[in-house]
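Lecture notes, structural biology module. Today: joint structure prediction for complexes of two components.
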Amino acid sequence: EVQVEESGGGLVQPGGSLRLSCAASGFKFNSYVMSWVRQAPGKGLECVSSISSGSGGSTYYADSVKGRFTISRDNSKNTLYLQMNSLRADDTAVYYCAKQGGGSGSYSDWGQGTLVTVSS
Amino acid sequence: EIVMTQSPATLSVSPGERVTLSCRASQSVSSNLAWYQQKPGQAPRLLIYGASTRATGIPARFSGSGSGTEFSLTISSLQAEDFAVYYCQQYIKWPYTFGQGTKLEIK
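The predicted structure, tokenised, for the full assembly:
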């Protein structure tokens, strides 16, 4: 069974940093593109960042987080990361880890999400 | 960035009814279109990818159609568990973008 589980969310002050983790199991982690998708309270979904399969040599970011967030993966630990720096109030959201479907850019499997709250 | 527009924002329907949700892309996405269902407090669930292919375990009452810029999701006979928010998403070009969602309410 495919499972992805996020951790690392919490309350952080504006300008602070946080690192999210996503532990994956039940599939060949290094063979899949992985992404972070966020949802602000009461709002829709936004693709934040994505990383290619294998060594993760290709990374992609939404303009809203470019230069502040860094996505990475450790295939030896089956874990995806999102390093978030210079956090702002509008980064407040539930952050989901999502596995891209094989042969499709859609997200076939999602974690339950971790809440990040940026507030003083 | 490709803008995805869903209509209507809210739809009030009765169980057993047939309903069609619409999604329009600001430029062609070919068939690189997915539909998701999200219930309160839960993660989104993939329903349809490739515009018309049901994801694993999705009931046959869900069907998708369209290509290019116009897409639709049809639920043939609404069940109680189908009342939720539905999102479309394009994945032809980064940033992958979602529509703003259509909320299905019980009439």
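Point to remember: Chain B touches chain A at residues 1, 32, 34, 36, 42-46, 49-50, 55-56, 87, 89, 91-92, 94-101 (CB under 8 Å).
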